[in-house]
Amino acid sequence: MQYLLFISFLSKSPDKEQEKNRNNKSFGALISNIEGQIVKTSRLENDIEVSGTIFPFDETIIMSEVSGKVVKLNLLEGRLVQKGTMLLKLFDDDLQAQLRMLDVQLKIAENNEERMNKLFKVNGTSQQELMQAFSKLAI
After folding, report:
1. Other C-beta atoms within 10 Å of 83: how many?
2. Mutual orientation of helices 93-121 and 127-138 as an angle, nearest 10°?
3. Residue 27 phi/psi, 5° resolution?
4. What is the per-residue pLDDT for 62?
5. Which DSSP state fits 100?
6. Percent of the residues in the chain that have a pLDDT greater than 90, as a whole number
7. Which positions ≥6 away from 18 have C-beta within 8 Å?
8. Are 6 and 36 in contact (CB under 8 A)?
9. What is the pLDDT of residues 43-61, one digit of tens each?
């Protein structure tokens, strides 16, 4: 540890007689008090508190291509995710109902096309009706 010695000299203000005798007397006679103090080194803390915002190095903005209500959030902050991972789920009950309805319509069109194909083979229907059944299936 390092120490520093601080010394200060206090002198009397010279009066007229002392000024006359100045040449005859030494400078030490004018000094009345000598004070000293040992100063120790210490660590200086220089902390500054400020308000602000911290931005990460990497960030991702998640935007939906369609509007809707978010019903499930499947991510944790700070975790890595694999490509293709579902991050959030929108309310899709109405879309699921439409999908089920379209599945039923597809099965009906397949059955109708198969039935028309069988009827056409025994001359029970026309080529035009067979093509209409086939086109409904293709749509």
Report:
1. 4
2. 160
3. -70, -30
4. 75
5. H
6. 14
7. 12, 25, 30
8. yes
9. 777 788 888 888 877 777 7
